[in-house]
Amino acid sequence: MPAVSPEDDINLSNLNWLYLDMNSYFASVEQQDDVRLRNRPMIVVPVKSDYTSAIAASYEAKALGIKTGTSVKEARALCPAIQIREARPDRYVQVHNRILEEVDRTLPIEKVCSIDEVACRLTMGQRHEAAARALGYRIQQNIMANIGECLRSSIGIAPSRMLAKTAADIVKPLGLTVLRQDDLPGKLLDLKLNDLPGVGASMNLRLNKAGVFTVAELYALPAPRLRQIWGGIGGDNFWYSLHGIDPAEVDTIRGSISHSHVLASDLRPIEAARGVARRLVAKCGSRLRRMGYKCGGLHLSIRADRGDGRAQAEAHFDVTADSFRMIEVMDGLWRHCAAKLNSPRVKKVSITCTRVIPADLPPDLFGWTPEVAEDARHMRVLKALDGLNQRYGKDAVTIGPRTKVHGFVGAKVAFNRIPENAEFWE
Length: 426
Prior knowledge:
alpha+beta, 5-stranded mixed beta sheet, 3 domains, Alpha-Beta Plaits, DNA_pol_Y-fam_little_finger, Dna Ligase, domain 1, DNA polymerase, domain 1, single chain, 5-stranded antiparallel beta sheet, about 15% strand, EC 2.7.7.7, DNA-directed DNA polymerase, DNA/RNA_pol_sf, DNA-directed DNA polymerase activity
């Protein structure tokens, strides 16, 4: 057999992606910033309450069975000495931006996938396994050396971005896993179905109903069968990704903007909760104006403090970014939901701006433009209000009485959305 050249090795391994996943990110940032938390079981919670759950857990806590989703009461039962810290989204975004700068010094970032995950595309000589591994180790070490020793990460290297993300999950913390094209399915066979990105609880159940219980069975299915199971092109895309081929990227258009808030105990009485809803609407309006959008609908959802009680309502109106108009609409929705909820206390409030369109949307071919419901005087006041809050701090000027509300209302880190710095001032 002839010797394999470096070019042949690239074709065989087809290592196109390096995927970085920060380990227990929120908890690691807290341990980095507070030496008293290092090497100790600790969790991060969204609000100071005994009735909430962990959104992150340190590896010392995970070793005791405490993980994301564990309630505070359960965590204390498992570990009476558990340390609890309230989330600091602005700090996590700040460290996130430093991590991006550090990674980019070694390898250009192709896509920021979440607050704690980035994907980098490998090119030419970087696709040799030895070279890709060296890049991964360098990134891991540089983050710990230049940002913080507690900020460990795992690296996945693979042909498709989805497989690279999968590989990054295989060994934690501080792991580096390579999935070569010529070795597939290889290490994938050791995984469970729900270890694969895109296979959540409902899809796992759907696969089981189709007679698929293992990754080996899933890998052996043809693309048309996955399309049937997924119910659309998502199945084709998953098949290609699983077999090391990146499906075509599809640009998505923003359709909504939303904010929600789990209320502290003193904000749960119905009238106090309404103040939080008004604050969330004001934040949505500020965000619409900053991003250059208007909305034509508002959806309100409130959840009762006890049981499964929930009420929701939606209204459509001429498009606007006028917070005064939006708060007026929300007040009407609130009266409807409060009567329907039939509870004196509210646990969670969620606001969604729907029918979102660019503020400068041009006329269509027939000359149609959306009807706009904005008062010019309102918009001048709101522009001044936005400027003052960005300069002097959030809620320096408010619409109506200032609501005693959690400092990061609305500016939370979601799985696939990282707040912009401006959001912490809105």
